[in-house]
From TrEMBL:
PANTHER family, sorted: DNA UTILIZATION PROTEIN YHGH
Protein name: ComF family protein
Naturally occurring in which organism (per UniProt): Nitrincola tibetensis
Sequence intervals crossing the membrane: none
Domain (Double zinc ribbon) ranges: 14-62
Family named by the database record: Belongs to the ComF/GntX family.
Ranges of residues in domain Phosphoribosyltransferase: 138-230
Length: 231
């Protein structure tokens, strides 16, 4: 045991932050964990929900009733270990995972070969909720992505001015009403914007913020999330 520790120290090797069993790569995770990550598969380009075939670019829901945002890029599916990691970042201070996750998210976004936005914004928390948690994981993530992709992050562009119950606890109508007049835009933004968030659940918040941006001169809104939960 001690010998292992000494050897590790001598070689300056680091164990994988996910399994703790193998030697980590530059990102801090091992090759096994890396190959087991649940990368996104075929999903709707607009809302990010899974589609039955890669041939389907836009799902029937988005054709019938398109959301206010134009495209969604979700790096991972919301399954193990992502479904355990994202709540641990949000509720248990495990924000260090955002380092390697943001690097993979940036690589995924670049691999999609789509035009990059002019600016990044984040999904704001109500100031009381942010004080309680001590951080906003969306802002931490947007800050990292901003540095990696060299895109300006406007972290204070949007404020949440009303405290609301969690969207998942509400039905469709309640979700729409819950978010009315909930957000405020504080500054002028360029024409192409991406909203960065850790996870997209119902899509109602992304929809509401996109509406606000488009009512104020933004032309294209993309949603960049680590994962999209299934409906
Ligand atoms: Zn590992
Ligand atoms: Zn869709």
């Amino acid at each position: 045991m001690l010998l292992n520790k000494v050897n590790k120290w001598l070689k300056n090797t680091q164990s994988c932050v996910l399994c703790g069993l193998h030697q980590a790569n530059a990102l801090g995770i091992c090759d096994d964990c890396m190959s087991d990550l649940p990368w996104s598969m075929s999903c709707c380009h607009q809302c990010g929900l899974p589609t039955s075939s890669p041939v389907i670019k836009i799902c029937s829901n988005c054709i019938k009733q398109p959301p206010s945002f134009d495209a969604t890029s979700a790096t991972f599916r919301y399954v193990f270990p992502i479904d355990k990691l994202l709540p641990s970042i949000k509720y248990a201070n495990k924000t260090s995972h955002l380092g390697w996750l943001s690097t993979l998210m940036s690589q995924y976004i670049l691999s999609q070969d789509k035009p990059l936005p002019d600016a990044l914004v984040t999904v704001p928390m109500h100031p009381w909720d942010e004080i309680k948690r001590g951080y906003n994981q969306s802002s931490l993530l947007a800050n990292l992505i901003s540095k990696q992709l060299k895109l300006p992050a406007h972290l204070s562009a949007i404020s949440k001015i009303k405290r609301t119950p969690h969207q998942k606890e509400l039905n469709f109508i309640e979700r729409q009403q819950n978010l009315i007049n909930c957000f405020r835009l504080n500054e002028h933004l360029p024409k192409q914007v991406a909203i960065v968030d850790d996870v997209m659940t119902t899509g109602s918040t992304a929809n509401e913020i996109s509406k606000l941006l488009k009512n104020n001169g933004v032309e294209t809104v993309q949603i960049w999330v680590l994962a999209r939960t299934p409906e």
